[in-house]
Amino acid sequence: MRTFTRFGLLTLLILLAGIGVLPAQAQDAKVACDADLILSLYTAENNFNYAAVADKVMAAHPDMKMTDMSKLDYGQFTPLFDAMMKMMDNSMMSHGSMMDDKMMGSMTDMMSMSMADMEKSMMASMPADANMAQITTLPVGDIKGEPAECTALRASLRQFYTALAGEGMMMSMMPEATATPSS
């Protein structure tokens, strides 16, 4: 009976490996980042078209290295990414993005800079009367010992969200700057 149980277990393992339920071999291994980083990537892509901006940055600057998102393990959030990808077809991509061409160009330009240069550029573009003292600079949340791909993705997403926030601040200040006095 014991031999049959071992044989049955071995057969089950072989079957599971054959249909892809067991983890892939080392050469096909995906990079596993922390859950918060993967959720941040999902939010950036699903709501703000992160991949399109990253693609434009890499096309304009082939020397820039960005994380290959196809090599990431989305873990328990894989169904979210799968559903998002199913919803994205050519018509949705061209009509469903929250970014117009001007904002996409601006985001691409900012993402093409170093983080320090981007922050300097954003500060220089603020109106002289903007009260920046009320804005707190939050500490970064890097994780020591994580895979290099995760660290690079974390930095890229931080820069993306910072650029997005900068765009939001500029857009919120535009009506004030262009408003005409009423009589």
Helices and strands in order, then pairings?
Layout: H1 2-18, E1 31-32, H2 35-48, H3 50-60, E2 72-73, H4 78-87, H5 90-95, H6 101-111, H7 115-125, H8 148-178
Parallel strand pairs: 1-2
Helix pairs in contact: 2-8, 3-6, 6-8, 7-8
Could you describe the 3D structure shown?
The protein is an all-alpha fold and 183 residues long. It has a domain at 35-126 and 138-171. The protein is 61% helix and 2% strand. The chain is built from eight helices and two strands; from the N terminus they run H-E-H-H-E-H-H-H-H-H. It has helices at 2-18, 35-48, 50-60, 78-87, 90-95, 101-111, 115-125, 148-178; strands at 31-32, 72-73. Strands 1-2 form a two-stranded parallel sheet. Helix 3 crosses helix 6. The protein is globular, with a radius of gyration of 22 Å. Residues 9-22 have low confidence and may be disordered.
Supply database-style keywords:
two-stranded parallel sheet; mainly alpha; 183 residues; 8 helices; 2% strand
What order do the SSEs take from the amino end to the carboxyl end, as H and E?
Answer: HEHHEHHHHH
Proportion in β-strands: under 5%
Give the mean pLDDT. Answer: 79
Strand order of the largest sheet: 1-2
Please identify the structural class as seen in this structure: mainly alpha
Report how far the terminal alpha carbons are from each other: 95 Å
User: How is the biggest beta sheet arranged?
Assistant: 2 strands, parallel
**What are the segments in which pLDDT stays under 50 over at least 5 consecutive residues?**
9-22
In DSSP terms (H or I, runs of 4 or more residues), the helix count works out at: 8
**What kind of assembly state do the chains in view correspond to?**
single chain
Shape: globular
Helix content: 55-70%
Number of strands: 2
Radius of gyration: 22 Å
